[in-house]
Amino acid sequence: MSSSGAVAASVDPAQCTLAVGGGAVPLLRERGQRQVFCGLAGIVWLHRKIQDAFFLVVGSRTCAHLLQSAAGVMIFAEPRFATAILQDRDLAGMADCNDELDRVVAELLARRPDIGTLFLVGSCPSEVIKLDLDTAAERLSRNQQGRVRILAYSGSGIETTFTQGEDTCLTALVREMPAADAPALLVVGTLPDIVEDQFCRLFDAIGIAPVHFLPPRRASELPPVGAGTRVLAAQPFVGDTVAALAERGATLIEAPYPFGVEGTRAWLGAAAAAFDIPDARVQDVCAAPMARAERGLARYREQLAGKRISFLPDSQLEIPLGRFLARECGMQLVEVAVPYLDRRMLGPELALLPAPERLSEGQDVEAQLDRLRADRPDLTVCGLGLANPLEAEGLTTKWSIELVFSPVHGFDQAPDLAELFARPLNRRARLAF
Amino acid sequence: MQLTVWTYEGPPHMGAMRIAASMRDVHCVLHAPQGDTYADLLFTMIARNAKRPPVTYTSFQARDLGGDTAGLVQRTLRETVERFRPQALLVGEACTAELIQDQPGALAEGMDLGIPVVPLELPAYTRKENWGAAETFFSLVRALLRGRPLPERGQGAPKANLLGPTALGFRCRDDITEVTKLLGSLGIEVNVVAPAGASPADLLRLPEADFNVCLYPEIAHETCAWLERMFKQPWTRIVPIGVGATVDFLREAAALAGVDPAPALAAAQTRLPWYSRSVDSTYLTGKRVFIFGDATHAIAAARVATEELAFDVVGLGTYSREFTRELRAAAEQYGLEPLITDDYLEVEARVLELAPELVLGTQMERHIAKRAGIPCAVISAPVHVQDFPARYAPQMGFEGANVLFDTWVHPLMMGLEEHLITMFREDIEFHDEAAPSHLGPAATRGGAETRATAPADDAPADVSDEELIWDMDAERELRKIPFFVRGKARRNTERYARESGVATITIETLYDAKAHFGR
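YS: structure for the whole thing
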């Protein structure tokens, strides 16, 4: 995994410094208990985004339990995901295990004839027993004779952290993309449909065409890739996908991520520059939505300015969101923690980032909570397992998973994004206890 | 491999976590990869616990696998004991760690940590959550009490332990209060409640009680049986859910304590019997109900439904394979084919086939019922956040019976409303697709939409049965029957037609069948 290669190799927490826009900051590298989802959690949004795809986790009861717990806890009556739960006899012999997988896939496809693309999703147990899902996917695809496309990727916790599960999924799709060398913009990373439509209108007005999205809304309509493809990442966690696209001839447009007015403007500007469109054109197109977003943001800036915020490592959005909250909402960054620091994908963001009190990579949750209790920020962004206990300790929290599920990219969502952080503070202020 | 959409139970280490999270001064170390910490959110988000579960994970990664994962386990154990200073340490592994065979339990035992260490065997590929909880509780009790002398008993008031309530169990918090009250009415003191709220020091006092109350057999059965063997403590077999079972429980507990139950029974106050006898409840008579849950709650619900609400139980099942025998016996009593499965899809198929008028189940059956447009009440774990209510809402004891009456009757259409729909089925308000009016507009809309597509409603009962033909007039007449009995009317008519050799169903056949079967 190229991106996890960026994680500190040392077992001892090693302290060094990292240059960011605001100066040099201490970078803490930690190993210990991680309080983060594994990559399987990505299925929760990917199965809603790619409407003709089905995700079959090949794993244990733990995987099935994780999925239903992470999925807003059991809210979809007929989800497009399931788990093939390994049982004792599957562990006895690999031949049987493959036979069993074939049987389960046949059963599933018979039950759900609407499935166009089936992802076999690797898990911790399937990887430890070295069940080769890539080979299984090829075999099953042959058996299906083109009726269903079957692909494999890993969402295992030993290899992927939370949003990285989208990266490995998209990487599997890259191999399937048709080849075409004509110039085109490819936006990579799941965006809510409404945001995708907004960006389409903006790209159209700026004069960038054609524009494709990965993942597409239907897996049967994969965008093309080739020498003319310019890749614009909408999420910071798609590093491996970008590398796979580069192998197919595409080039990455380096840009900050489209969070907030500044990030969105820079993101669109970088795309335009890659297509030799003068920045004045971008400015013309963006002026009205930027002014609108600024108006919307003003109210929340009042509530957020001067407030201290810490991020626990979770979605990989910590650095772009920290940049937005500090530069556009006037918040003070205390600790900004990321599961892994992908310097390539985060380069332009780091260059803009006002120096937090510290940056940390990896996690040793108990030590991190000790620091948090000493820091006592006004707002802590953390995962679901920690939010209520921290609230009970008197810390105000924002659960981070909402940031992955809500429309937060782009100009028109900038105020909504700020509001997500203002709401817990607002609630704390309103309640009499 | 088993194809699974939703799972009723988590893996067995989840059961170990539930025991640790229920208790005080116990910590659990799990050898598990990153991602398995998701389990914390069930405690902190669904049960709204203010504290993190006392569980530490080793969080091993792919690159650790070639190296010293055993060293990682030992480091984690040492740091955990140092930081949390528990009175006892549970040591187990999740599914992936089981495959790499580091034996964390044995490692911990060899480390001289200075506190009791309980190694847990949690076979992730054969067992599940409730088994893991029962096994963990039993292992801990046995580790702490093995070889202890039999204490002197018989002085002062009789004492009982309440065994089985755990974090993420169904309404355990309020059941403890209610059962404590019940025992108090008999003059019996509660010695220890465990695992909920107990520390290892409290577990050491378990043998001081005269008997054990096996409140949740899924968790406490094995422990109760062991305590009986070791410390000669008898234990209760009746779970006090419903008025009848509560009365039986009072008699059973009184017998074990050697006290007279008569004063407590005379003073008992319960509204369920009168509410059920009052004429407004007439419309509940013979409502067809499908029941599924853990064995204890499902079996108890079947008795309450039959004896105390006069429902017809048309389906009874459980996902608790460990209690197959008990559930089979109960199903036989009601003349039913028991449904013993942990396959959500199989339960769904049975519900759609039976087309009950009410489903009593878990969070999963709530899904099934929602899709099929059938009213539903939750009676058993697994549950969602709304099943941890702020108010006092026990399932057990006399107050629990009142709660059952309210929560099971609430999803149903009220009696008079049902009549209005039967009489004026094209009325704007009381029309065919209307949901119970007290459930609000959202329920109406959602209910009607799902019902319109739900096969449970009035699709032919036996799709493969192609010999039977409904003529147009009969089909139209059938549509005049309210949706909540239409499925039954269709099934009965087709059964009557088959049995009497009628190939084409006419209006006459419909009414002949109605006369034949009655309401």
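YS: worth flagging: Chain A is about 45% helix and 20% strand.
IM: good catch. Also The first strand of chain A starts at residue 14 and ends at 20.
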